[in-house]
Design goal:
single chain, 105 residues, alpha+beta, two-stranded antiparallel sheet, 19% strand
C-alpha cells in the first residue's frame, strides 16, 4: 500500500529549494516548515544550514530574474499573517511591459 504524503512524516523528503526559500524568506521557522512539509525538524535544519549563507545574499536560481523569468514580490495572507512572497513568471513581453509601466508610475 502506498504511503499518504499528507499524513505520513518522512525523515528526508524536502520540497524544491525555491519552495523552502520562499517559506524561509516569509518568516517561517524550522518547526513550522517541518509541520508543513511533513518531515522531522532536524531534516529542515540540516537542509537549511548549508544554504543559509547563500540565501542571505541572493535567492536560489529559480527565483532570480533573468532572460527566461521575471520574479515579483507580492504581499499575501498565509497562516493568518501577511507575508511577502516571491512569484516567478515566464519572461513574456506582456508581463515585462506591465511591470515596467507600474515601476515608472
Amino acid at each position: 500500500m502506498a504511503r499518504d504524503p499528507l499524513t505520513t512524516r518522512s525523515k528526508t523528503a524536502m520540497p524544491a529549494e525555491s519552495l523552502v526559500y520562499r517559506d524561509w524568506a516569509a518568516g517561517m521557522d524550522g518547526e513550522m516548515m517541518a509541520e508543513k512539509y511533513g518531515v522531522d525538524p532536524d531534516t529542515v535544519r540540516h537542509y537549511i544550514r548549508p544554504r543559509l549563507p547563500r540565501w542571505k545574499t541572493s535567492p536560489p536560481p529559480q527565483l532570480r530574474t533573468d532572460q527566461r523569468r521575471l520574479v515579483i514580490q507580492k504581499e499575501c495572507w498565509q497562516d493568518k499573517a501577511l507575508r511577502n512572497v516571491l512569484i516567478s513568471l515566464p519572461h513574456i513581453s506582456m508581463y515585462a511591459a506591465v511591470l515596467e509601466e507600474r515601476a515608472n508610475g
